[in-house]
Amino acid sequence: DSEIVRLRRIRTEFIENLSHELRTPVTAIGLIAELLAADMKGSPATGAGAVAPKVRERILQLESESIHLGQMINELLDLARIESGEGMHRNDEIDVAVIVRSAVDRLAPFAAQAKVGVKIESPQSVKLAPRGNLSRLSQVVVNLLHNAIKFSSASSAVEVRVTPPTTNHANARIIVIDHGVGIARADLDRVFERFFIADRARSKGGGTGLGLSIARHIVEAHGGDISAISTLGEGSTFTITLPSR
């Protein structure tokens, strides 16, 4: 066990060092792309000083890819820290109803821009006896809700339900339901794998393939479980189950 811990620490340190080395040039590239995009937007569409359409397209692509690369570096570092247990053990009071409402409020502008409604079905408070890492659990719910909005069609609605523990069921559940593009059966078993990007994500501009893997590690570190069911063309349901005692 001590050897496994040592190897995990070495891996985490390697990823941290690599991430820091990569972050400086990636930040510089992103800043240059941002400045070029700003200059381009201030230039005339035609005539003297106009930027050729092909150049405009490449500048915007450079800006987009630099943002994506920066996000991947951050999430890779985040995953390495979570897998090593770094910063996971906290003693926060966990109220899943509050976590859900906070996530919905945080993503309200994104939902409005996407023209997707968000419906909450939850008691006022669902506190768990085990304490944990409030920030990390909030990160999971924000990730699932962001995905649900992203993959929903305009004018549809995402549903977020909080199910409190009962006499017959000792766990609390957070359920995120969308009525979007859905996930192919072949992809469904792999959505929580590192670096796996489902077809639906590729159609929306891809992603890092790390968000759901990070979510799984966080939930499991709290003694819980995360699962997904989906029908292609009809939508997806992600369920977080957390022990209440």
Q: How big is the Rg?
A: 21 Å
Structurally, how many domains make up the residues? 2
Query: Per CATH, what is the topology of the largest domain?
Result: Heat Shock Protein 90
Biggest sheet layout = 5 strands, mixed
What low-confidence regions span 5 or more consecutive residues with pLDDT below 50? none
Write down the overall mean pLDDT. 84
Strand portion, in percent? 15-25%
CATH arch. level architecture of the largest domain: 2-Layer Sandwich
CATH class of the largest domain: Alpha Beta
Features:
Heat Shock Protein 90, Helix Hairpins, alpha+beta, five-stranded mixed β-sheet, 2 domains, 8 helices, single chain, 245 residues
Summarize it.
51% of the residues lie in helices and 19% in strands.
If you had to describe this structure to a student in words, what would you say it looks like?
By secondary structure, this protein is of the alpha+beta class. It has two domains: 1-84, Helix Hairpins (Orthogonal Bundle), CATH 1.10.287; 94-243, Histidine kinase-like ATPase, C-terminal domain (Heat Shock Protein 90, 2-Layer Sandwich). The protein contains eight helices and seven strands; from the N terminus they run ααβααββαββαααββ. The protein has a five-stranded mixed β-sheet. A two-stranded antiparallel sheet has the order 1-3. Strand 6 and strand 7 (235-243) form a beta hairpin. The chain is globular, with a radius of gyration of 21 Å.
